[in-house]
Amino acid sequence: MGSSLFKLMHPWGLQCGAALCALMSAPGAVAETAPQIKALKIAAESAPDMDGDLSDAVWRKAPVTDQFFQIQPVEGAMPSDRTDVRIVYTDTHLYIGATLYDSSPQDITANVMTRDVDVEKDDYIQIFLDSYNTARDSHFFMVSPTGARRDGLTENNRKFAPEWDTIWNAKTRITDEGWTAEIAIPFRSFGYDNNEEGWGFQIRRNIARKNEIIAWSQITQDLPDYDVSGIGRLTGIKNTRAGAGIEIEGFLTAETLHDWGSGQTDKSLEPAVNLYYRFTPALTGSVTLNTDFSDMPLDPRQVNTDRFSLFLPETREFFLQDQNLFAFGGRPFRAVNGLPFFSRRIGIVGGVPVDIEGGAKLSGSVGPINIGALSAQTGRAGDLDRQVLSVARLSADIAGGSRIGMIVTDGDPTGETDNTVWGLDGQYKTQFQSGANFAADGYYLKSESTDAARDGESYGVEIAYPNDKLNWFVRAKHLGEGYDPALGFTNRSGIRDYNGQLRFRNRHSSGSDTLYDTLGFFGTLVTDLSAAQESAQIGTYIQRVWRDGSSALGFLFQDSDRLDAPFTVAGTVNIPAGNYTWLRKSAVFDTGSSRNWGLRAELEIGGWYDGDRTLLDVTANYRPTKHLNFKAGYRQNDISLPAGSVQIKVLSVDANINITPDMQIVNQVQYDNISEDFEYFGRFRWAIRPQTELLVTYSQSGTADFDDLNSRQSGLSVRIGNTYRF
User: Is 41 helix (H, G, I), strand (E, B) or coil?
Assistant: First the structure.
């Protein structure tokens, strides 16, 4: 460790660390006092009926919150329609009642009914709860006029994580005056600090056909939707009951799997259990046994034309719960290369699923300390023995939405080495007296392994001015030659990566059909550790967004790449070693999402290494009614090189049938012409009640061309699950 600390004193790292420390200690401007909502305590027997009708007597007793302002299109302007919100609570539930007036209720955008999918394309109301008062993370809940629901997390003021799910309920009605929503969230469904006098709280509303977003607090275009650093406060919630803090999720899955090549059929009946215990309202322990992942959708099909491996996001529920507590490094990892922990490494080895026999997790907070700790044991698979894989992440939130922390991972999913990674990070955020935002994040990581060739370090820093009219950032990352986090994601090491962007935005007046125009410049430089250039990209873009949500975007950029060794594109065409420079142009048009149909088309043309490439990417969706959603995607990549040509085609079709907001049938089909593999995934999901779910899935894989269709594997799974809370 001494040598690691010595290396951290490398002049580059020392300068970054000194700058970061100075920024972390600099005083920030005092933000304006955030608005507050006080919730009304009611008896359990007075709780409103969950039917979307706000005529219950209890709603008339609750104070009305109606001070909302536009964020878009005109920051700070009065909304075109009124919004009234009332909040009450019992010992066990938080209730939110909203009346969303609309001067033209027949034009309310209400085309989506699918749970957790595309709710933001409709009108909606969205609630954010920063229940740990981090000013960085929150739980969010959103509901549309059809009753479609979506929940998730915001992570580190950096992104949405909509994959997170919990138990809650919402009912809606479209009326002659607009629409109404009733929301019920059990206190057991999210972690919180019971000792705090209030939580961070935000309400946002979308009027889709007007491209109008209004909010109750943090009225600024300088911060993205997922930023909760300056939201308001929910107060008055005291003496809540989370029960004994015990939650049991029990699943029983019957599965049959048929291999068409061998003719063999395997059948199984497997129980699975997830156990949760809240040591405090803010700290939860969980155990999973014989973990079931039968609800996993298909990964987006991609054909890699690059020489570096692709990144696929996590979709498994057990790993998504409280995943924000494991997030490390902040802004430098917007580019994911070098991540110390990537949960998809657990239970998936070389793209092949491996059973997870059991796992334990501790997540939440103790005072100012945020905790994320996970350990899992994977099963045997072929020559691969059982592996124990672990990660621990600690962080502390400090004034103004800043954070310091550390991380340790241990284990190698492949069993090839004993691998450990440890690291430190700091994330700073402030607001100047002018109201402008400023951020600076930095990290240091060390990878240690029984294979000395996999020992190395990584460090990086990003400084950013993330505002609406003027937005810029500069980033630098070092990934040592041997840096190789076995539980993380690294597709390129032995480099230094420098990246920056400058963007100007001009918003038009309220009478214009144009919402805003954007002009941007960007650049990337990657060198080896001796500072010799490996690759680079510089470019500019211009974008116009109209008030109806449609947009047009144009790119012009130049790439350079030094190949020290040849590589093969899609397994067919070879690109020899050498130095290459090429120019490309791209245009993207999007019709927006407020209509019942939509089209996004991208065309990119120009050079590519020592040849040419034309890329066409089209996505179309159609929602004839709220019960039917169709989406089709087609991507064609034509590459012509001196060594030969290749045409890559990827096709995907999704068809969703929404019987009710709690009952859907999802169908996915994917195909590419390089592997000639096709996959079908179908899922029937019925939330019989908020804590009980029936899931039926059918999968089919095989190969196909224009002349023949050959099945490889078919699978049918039926799962019943129930959650018991004590």
Answer: strand
Contact 527, 536 (CB under 8 A): no
Burial (Cβ within 10 Å: 0-12, 13-18, ≥19) of residue 625: exposed
What are the angstrom distances between the C-alpha of 602 and each of 450, 586, 720? 47, 7, 42
Q: What is the largest CA-CA distance in the chain?
A: 77
Helix (H) or strand (E) holding 25: helix 11-25
- Give the whole-angstrom CA distance, residue 552 versus residue 591: 9
> Structure pTM?
0.82
Given a contact cutoff of 8 angstroms between Cβ atoms, the answer to whether 187 and 240 are in contact is yes
User: Alpha-carbon distance 219 to 7, whole Å?
Assistant: 44
Could you tell me how far CA 547 lies from the centroid of its own chain?
26
Query: In the 8-state DSSP scheme, what is residue 120?
Result: G
Q: What is the pLDDT of residues 207-219, one digit of tens each?
A: 998 889 999 999 9
**Using CA atoms, how far apart are residues 267 and 310, in angstroms rounded to an integer?**
33
Hey, which residues does 69 pair with through a beta bridge?
A: 215
Q: Which H helix or E strand runs over 5?
A: helix 2-8
Bridge-based pairing state of the strands 573-575 and 567-569: antiparallel
- Cβ atoms of 378 and 352 within 8 Å: the answer is no
Of the candidates 723, 722, 680, 671, which has an alpha carbon nearest to the alpha carbon of residue 698?
680
Nearest Cα residue to 634 out of 664, 673, 585: 673
Backbone angles phi, psi at 3, to 5 degrees: -65, -35
Cα 617 from Cα 649, distance rounded (Å): 10
The mean pLDDT of the chain is 89
Size of the chain in residues: 726
Bond preceding residue 297 cis, omega within 30 of 0:
no
- Kindly write down the DSSP assignment for every residue of 659-714, as one continuous string: EETTEEEEEEEEEETTT-EEEEEEEEEEEEETTEEEEEEEEEEEEE-SS-EEEEEE
CA angle 689, 695, 698 (to 5 degrees): 160
φ, ψ at 209 (rounded to 5°):
-65, -20
- Angstrom CA distances, 487 to 91, 375, 456, 494, stand at 41, 12, 15, 18
Q: Does residue 42 register a pLDDT over 90?
A: yes
Lowest mean pLDDT among 392-401, 425-434, 485-494: 392-401
Burial class (CB in 10 A: 0-12, 13-18, 19+), 582: middle
What is the rounded distance in angstroms from the CA atom of residue 93 to the CA atom of residue 84?
20
Of 132, 172, 124, 183, residue with least CA distance to 153: 132
3 state DSSP class of 302: coil
Q: How far is CA 312 from CA 297, 383, 401, 439, 511, in A?
A: 12, 25, 29, 27, 42
Distance CA 206, CA 709 (A): 45
Alpha carbons 342 and 193: distance in angstroms, whole number = 27
pLDDT in tens, 630-689: 999 999 999 999 999 999 999 999 999 999 989 999 999 999 999 899 999 999 999 998
Hey, what's the torsion of the CAs at 78, 79, 83, 86, to 10 degrees? Answer: -40
The span from the CA of 494 to the CA of 447, in Å, is 13
**508 CB-near residues (< 8 Å, 6+ apart):** 514, 515, 516, 517
Contact in structure between 603 and 583 (CB atoms under 8 Å)? no
List, in order, residues 6 or more apart from 690 with CB less than 8 Å away.
167, 168, 169
For the record, the structure tokens of 81 come out as: 């329609």
- For residue 225, which of 157, 152, 178 has the smallest C-alpha distance? 157
The two beta strands, 356-366 and 352-353, are unpaired
Provide the residue type at 144 as one letter: S
User: How much is the average pLDDT of 246-273?
Assistant: 93
Burial of 588 (0-12, 13-18, 19+ CB in 10 A): middle
Q: Are 620 and 598 in contact (CB under 8 A)?
A: yes
pLDDT tens digits, one per residue of 325-339: 898 999 999 889 999
